[in-house]
Amino acid sequence: MKIFILLVLFYIGYSGNNGQECYCNQLLTEADCLMSQLQCSWNSFKQQCKYETTIYQPQSIIREYCNQFSNDTCNKLKPCESCVSNGPCQLRYGSCSHFTGCTAFVEKDNSKCQQISERCITDGVQCVEIGICDSYKTEIACQQDMNHKWCFWDKNTSKCRYPEKCEELPKTFYQDSQCKSQISDCESSQQGGCQDQTIIYSVSTTSNTSSTTTTQTTTTTTSYNASPSLNQCKDFTLESECIKNLEGSPCYWNENSCKDKVCSIAPKNFKTNKICQNFLSFCITMKEGGCMNNGTCQVANTLEACAKDIFGVDCVWTANGGCIYKNCSLAPTTITSNQDCDSFIKDVCVVKEGGGCRNKECEDLYGSSHVSCWTQKSGCTVGLNSKCAKIKNCEDTTLKGACMEGLNGPCLWIFNQFSNEQPQGKCYSYNSCQSIQWNTDQQCKQVSPFCTTDGTKCIPITQCSETNTNGGCVNGNDGQCIQTVMALNNTQTVCKKFDTCSSAYYLKHEECQNANKNCTTNGLTGCISLFDCSAYKTKESCKINSEKYSCFWNEIQQICRDSICSDYNFNTHQQCNLVVINVKDKCTSDGEQCLVISSCTTYKSKLVCNNAQATEGTCIWSELESQCKVKQCSDISAQNLANCSLELGSCTFDGTKCIQWQLCSNYQTKVACNTMGLDGICFWSKSGSCSLMTSCKSATDDEQACRQANQKCNWLSSGSCEDHQCDSYYKQHGTCTNLQNWNGQSQIICQEKSGNCNYVDPMTLNQKDCYKVSNYWYTWNPTTSKCAICNPQIKPSNNTNGTNTSKNSNNTNSTTGNDNTNSTNSTDSSETLTNQESTSSSFFITYFMLFILIVFI
Ligand SMILES: *[C@@H]1O[C@H](CO)[C@@H](O)[C@H](O)[C@H]1NC(C)=O
Ligand SMILES: *[C@@H]1O[C@H](CO)[C@@H](O)[C@H](O)[C@H]1NC(C)=O
Ligand SMILES: *[C@@H]1O[C@H](CO)[C@@H](O)[C@H](O)[C@H]1NC(C)=O
Ligand SMILES: *[C@@H]1O[C@H](CO)[C@@H](O)[C@H](O)[C@H]1NC(C)=O
Ligand SMILES: *[C@@H]1O[C@H](CO)[C@@H](O)[C@H](O)[C@H]1NC(C)=O
Ligand SMILES: *[C@@H]1O[C@H](CO)[C@@H](O)[C@H](O)[C@H]1NC(C)=O
Ligand SMILES: *[C@@H]1O[C@H](CO)[C@@H](O)[C@H](O)[C@H]1NC(C)=O
Ligand SMILES: *[C@@H]1O[C@H](CO)[C@@H](O)[C@H](O)[C@H]1NC(C)=O
Ligand SMILES: *[C@@H]1O[C@H](CO)[C@@H](O)[C@H](O)[C@H]1NC(C)=O
Ligand SMILES: *[C@@H]1O[C@H](CO)[C@@H](O)[C@H](O)[C@H]1NC(C)=O
Ligand SMILES: *[C@@H]1O[C@H](CO)[C@@H](O)[C@H](O)[C@H]1NC(C)=O
């Protein structure tokens, strides 16, 4: 309840914000663009912020899900069509979505299954997940396990298992290595397939064919080994031959012999890095003279060699004479700007408090999506306030946009409308349907239409005939399923593909409904399709017709017909209202039985009139006229506001009696005036009239009105009503927020600093705060390095005490509409009144909700 009030207050506080917010195309920096509350997206080629016109269909959200994985989580995920490669995604009907499980798909071809996901192969009928051999149920699926180990189909037991003997390895094997890779002491057999190693030996000694192959192998090996010495540097004896070896690597003539040219043989009189580099490009100088390989920073032992490591990463020479990798903490404390830290090590360092630099953390980056954060720094995802944050375990991730890759693997954001915890959804560690522990089909369908339940967790759907009867028998990969007992009076349940209702054998309407929502029972042999009420022959069938409207069984005539309100004997309106008779009629109650809702004047008895609801609302019986009339506020004799409104929503209280809610100016008493007008908060003036409040000053004679408008106004103990200032609002409400004036056309910008909330001139805001703190009215202009307003036709108000902040602007005309009463003739005032009422009705509803909440708490 309290939260609800806050929401309403929030809404009132911000409802005036129209048209001042920067448009996408006015945002000039990527950071502001990413931060925008509108659907803006940054085009990094054009360096422009654009409105994202594509409407977010569920389809594209799913596509987005798969597009967001970084390459190492989900190889080749871009473009989405390659989402099939062993990732958290699957491709079906041209769309890429989170992987659910293979059995949801009917494919007879391995290649077709693989096109859905590389995690799937076929079992001849449908796809199945590649797993361990023992998990395959058919011979056709019994091929390889997830680690590419081969499986064996044991015909005797009709089971798939790992091969135990060489003969059980595939007949297609023809190389020893293939056999050995599966079972180490197997070798290939002449007939194809594999054999025990020992048998091969006994064959090779006796058989001519195999001994010839052995000799052949020996000769080739010898010829290969015959002249290797000629190919190496050390084999050259003349300086003129000493150039390169057979592989093309350089040789070096030194001390009358030819040697491989490597850094370490460079003469000791090589003393500079330049000479070493000229010797071989990857050599660096060393302390004692000579050269060594460029490697990590740590290998360098002179200042000169300590420049960059072999990959070009910067090194630094330390005070105590060692070479280490350059890192942000080595920056001198005289550095005090991000720019200087960035030039210390590009894209890595940011300024540290107190001077110097530190490593850039996720929290230092701006980004509005997982991808934008991850691409800036791996291990980062989107965080609060358009900043990036470190990734966490899926279960600890509270932001939908960050629910992508957790520390513990892929995540998925799922709504569970059947649970009250986190109604806006929750982040789950996700691998397939089976990751989610829900026990009804309806719940699991929230994960994917390809999921159902097995009674304890979600599972991918499969063929109806293979589907469990613990709640999973709803739809299969072969269509709709129906659950039934095997036969009449049998208790064993099975799941079947749904053809007609008659394939289920139940004698109760509810049981047939459970089997399929389009079925009822005939009461004799089993279920039948829903039909017209009049077609049902037994009382048990006579429940609902094919349009799901109620039927009624007439016991006397023993016939079934469409039901009417008066068939039901409920004594409250609520009960009768739940009865579904047909499209147009709804039922209410006269206190004894139900009847069709109609207008008050058609209710001819006092009993009906006083109990039944009418199309106009509530009725009341007039003893005087002996007829039923629409109940008016004046018919209520309540002593306070709460009772007036509770009895009739259209009534407020004027101090003595209930009256209709009206525009402020029509209220005649202060009590009524202070309840709220249809057009907003009202105030009572000294002269004794009620008006719509359009400034705080105007409520200086009406403390109650001032306090009612506490989102904008502050009641001073000195007895005046003043516009809230940053600090007074902060003291009263505990939050530092920008304050908008009465018509929402200007605002005071407030900023919290060390526990105080103060006015700031938005022009003085820095790049980081400009857009956010100005409530999205200003943006950072990188060319001028200034915080500038986007829509300058509306100037923000100065921090003055004046209340007439934008009286000079013309557009009070249609937005508030209450400014003057002179513009309309009195003759047509009734018409304008209704116009005013309708334009301000949404405003009223907001306030009315607030009011009701406050009154009834
Ligand atoms: C992912 O891989 C594709 C293709 O290999 C490449 O074009 C793309 O830039 C990579 N994306 C990231 C974020 O590394
Ligand atoms: C199958 O059973 C037959 C006869 O019982 C037996 O000879 C054969 O070895 C069995 N095959 C396997 C693979 O167990
Ligand atoms: C080490 O190798 C890198 C990359 O090739 C090069 O930029 C650097 O200058 C080399 N180091 C030295 C001291 O020559
Ligand atoms: C089913 O059981 C009911 C009562 O238990 C019995 O009257 C009926 O004949 C049985 N039907 C069949 C088909 O066995
Ligand atoms: C019931 O029938 C309607 C209309 O033929 C169909 O759209 C709906 O899917 C069916 N529902 C079930 C549960 O079979
Ligand atoms: C605010 O007031 C000062 C002086 O009172 C004036 O110089 C300034 O222009 C005003 N700013 C705006 C935005 O009206
Ligand atoms: C606003 O008015 C109050 C009282 O009249 C005064 O004390 C205060 O200084 C004023 N504030 C500004 C910013 O002018
Ligand atoms: C008021 O609006 C009229 C036309 O709509 C325009 O000509 C005039 O300049 C406006 N006045 C002000 C003060 O904005
Ligand atoms: C007031 O509204 C009317 C109708 O919407 C429009 O024609 C007129 O120009 C407006 N006047 C001003 C001053 O904005
Ligand atoms: C209404 O019009 C009359 C005469 O035309 C004028 O004297 C009076 O000040 C106007 N009132 C308002 C609120 O504009
Ligand atoms: C007021 O009413 C008179 C006659 O009823 C009409 O001529 C006149 O135009 C109206 N004035 C306005 C401002 O609507």
Automatic annotation (TrEMBL):
Signal peptide: 1-19
Keywords: Glycoprotein, Signal
All residue ranges annotated as the PSI domain in the record: 23-67, 73-114, 132-180, 532-577
A family per Pfam: Paramecium_SA
Disordered: annotated segments: 799-834
Residue ranges of coiled coil: none
Name by which UniProt lists this protein: PSI domain-containing protein
Protein's organism: Paramecium octaurelia
Lineage: Eukaryota, Sar, Alveolata, Ciliophora, Intramacronucleata
